[in-house]
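[agent] plan:
  1. take the single chain provided in the ticket
  2. run structure prediction with default settings
  3. attach structure tokens to the ticket
  4. add a short note for the reviewer (M.T.)
[agent] executing step 1
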Amino acid sequence: MTQAVPDSWRPALEPVLQSPEARRLGGWLQREEAGGKAIYPPRGQRLRALELTPLDQVKAVILGQDPYHGPGQAHGLCFSVPEGIATPPSLVNIYKELESDLGIPRRSHGNLEHWARQGVLLLNTCLTVEAGKAGSHAGKGWEAITDAAVAAVARREEPSVFILWGNHARAKAAKVPELGSGTRHLVLTSPHPSPLSAYAGFFGSKPFSQANAFLEATGRGAIEW
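[agent] step 2 finished; step 3 output follows
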């Protein structure tokens, strides 16, 4: 697992990747796949968020829970799906809010790589899931690795935006002291964009315009959402 970590993230993640917990995770994933279980996303895409968004280029962080568990959906970026795959309901609502907030028309696909390449870290708490079983890899060891990634961004002197949709994302960020009161970063919270909660305050929260205003004011440059 260590070999696959992009160079920009390696110093920040190396300590946790060398831990017994991480080694247990690697062994457990190998046994699950050897036993014939389908794991999403496929090998080679599980650290895609870190590959597309080097640590020194992070401007914003969006936190998800775990990958989509349907065939062909997960490709290593939270909320995102490859082109040709139907846009999931939560992402449909994200696009609706983006259109309302910045006037950007809804896209015909759900691939968010263009965000990631501009410095938006699209990170799930767990980076794998068993096919058809949401949350199946929770508590297996990914959390320590992704906690370390979030903390690494928060420790940087450059101010970043942390966009926290729903209780799960807020709870993950709450573990990072640098995101507490008086932080130099902008922390935006709202309900999750899922159809179950989007009308409880996600719609109208304007995260994209707020993020860009902050990034421009701090000299980091707006994101082309």
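[agent] step 4 note for reviewer: The mean pLDDT is 96.
[agent] ticket updated
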